[in-house]
């Protein structure tokens, strides 16, 4: 049996990978409801390895390329690509983004209008990452918990984990050297007047915006550069910049209803890549940072294979010495 602390994204992904290999799994979650305490609830849910290469290592593409297939077995995944645009004065940002990424094709104003009719005549050129996708993080967490339980795994909600768990997936609460908090801020808007079907990134030297469509005219907006270690709620300054960028993308967002704002501290290592580590007798999967939904599948697979390989080795040694 494998005991896991934390039913957030990392813990559930590890539980799923172990359970689907036939292992008995028990996951301890202090909250009464899965996902309510997880920083992953503030994520964009973008499965965008080629876009992320702009500011991340090549490993992001290698580890994240299969994430959409993994998630599609668990929860709905929208495979509509990512559209990257910039205003006329920020075309240099678009050129720089193109040079630092791959897996895209250049698109003209006419192409942009064909992809997203509501953006017609708003941008003269852009980049289209056709093979990228997105999902709804909160639904994905719930669906992943259901998948774990369907495979026979147990999730003990409202129960603190014992000290001797096999795997610690508690994010910033974990006692790991080198882990630091990185702040992310987001907002959810309701704007039925705008119809966008895929993730759109608006490049800007100071605050690059990403917008991810949700159901019923809702959109999640966030920015990759609003980061600090503060635990306070989303600030007026940050939200003003986000809303201004959304207005630049389409003026109708000026009349959008603000459904929710949020801020969370995401666990990160110095290189901003997740790690599987073994510290003081327990395994840790941590440091998912802003690549959580993208990289969790590959990292959970790696840890499950390592654990089960070690278990098989121990069982074989016991049989030989019996």
Overview of the molecule:
With 322 residues, this protein is α/β, with parallel strands linked by helices. The protein folds into two domains: 177 residues, 3-Layer(bba) Sandwich (FAD/NAD(P)-binding domain), CATH 3.50.50; 132 residues, 2-Layer Sandwich (D-Amino Acid Oxidase, Chain A, domain 2). The chain is 32% helix and 25% strand. The chain has nine helices and 16 strands. Helix 1 links the parallel strand 1 and strand 2. Helix 1 packs parallel to helix 7 and helix 1 crosses helix 9. The two termini are 22 Å apart. The C terminus is likely disordered.
Which features would summarize this protein structure in a list?
6-stranded mixed sheet; 2 domains; D-Amino Acid Oxidase, Chain A, domain 2; disordered C terminus; FAD/NAD(P)-binding domain; 8-stranded mixed sheet; alpha/beta; 322 residues
Short synopsis of the structure:
The protein is an alpha/beta fold.
SSE blueprint and pairings:
Elements: E1 2-5, H1 9-19, E2 25-29, E3 46-47, H2 49-52, H3 59-64, H4 67-72, E4 82-86, H5 91-100, E5 105-108, H6 109-115, E6 125-129, E7 133-134, H7 137-150, E8 154-157, E9 167-168, E10 180-190, E11 199-203, E12 209-213, E13 218-223, H8 236-249, E14 257-268, E15 275-279, E16 282-286, H9 292-321
Parallel strand pairs: 1-2, 1-9, 2-8, 4-11, 9-16
Antiparallel strand pairs: 3-7, 4-6, 5-6, 10-13, 10-14, 11-12, 12-13, 15-16
Helix pairs in contact: 1-7, 1-9
């Amino acid at each position: 049996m494998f005991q896991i602390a934390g039913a957030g994204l990392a813990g559930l992904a590890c539980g799923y990978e172990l359970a689907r290999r036939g292992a008995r799994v028990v996951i301890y979650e202090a909250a009464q409801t899965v996902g309510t305490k997880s920083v992953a609830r503030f994520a964009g849910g973008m499965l965008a390895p080629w876009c992320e290469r702009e500011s991340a290592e090549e490993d992001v593409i290698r580890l994240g390329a299969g994430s959409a297939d993994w998630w599609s077995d668990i929860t709905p995944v929208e495979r509509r690509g990512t559209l990257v645009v910039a205003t006329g004065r920020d075309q240099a940002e678009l050129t720089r983004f193109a040079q630092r990424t791959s897996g895209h094709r250049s698109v003209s104003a006419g192409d942009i209008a064909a992809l997203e009719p509501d953006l017609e005549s708003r941008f003269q050129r852009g980049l289209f990452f056709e093979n990228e996708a997105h999902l709804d993080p909160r639904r994905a967490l719930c669906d992943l918990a259901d998948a774990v339980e369907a495979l026979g795994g147990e999730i003990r909600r409202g129960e603190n984990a014992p000290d001797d768990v096999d795997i610690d997936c508690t994010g910033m609460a974990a006692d790991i050297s080198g882990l630091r908090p990185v702040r992310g801020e987001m907002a959810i808007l309701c704007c039925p007047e705008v119809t966008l079907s895929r993730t759109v990134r608006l490049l800007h030297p100071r605050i690059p915006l990403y917008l991810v469509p949700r159901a019923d005219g809702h959109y999640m907006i966030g920015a990759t550069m609003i980061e600090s270690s503060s635990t306070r709620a989303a600030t007026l300054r940050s939200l003003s910049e986000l809303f201004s960028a959304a207005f630049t993308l389409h003026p109708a967002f000026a009349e959008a209803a603000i459904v929710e704002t949020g801020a969370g501290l995401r666990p990160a290592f110095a290189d901003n890549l997740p790690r599987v580590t073994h510290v003081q007798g327990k395994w840790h999967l941590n440091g998912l940072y802003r690549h959580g939904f993208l990289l969790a599948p590959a990292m959970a697979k790696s840890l499950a294979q390592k654990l089960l390989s070690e278990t098989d080795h121990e069982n074989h040694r016991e049989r030989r010495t019996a």
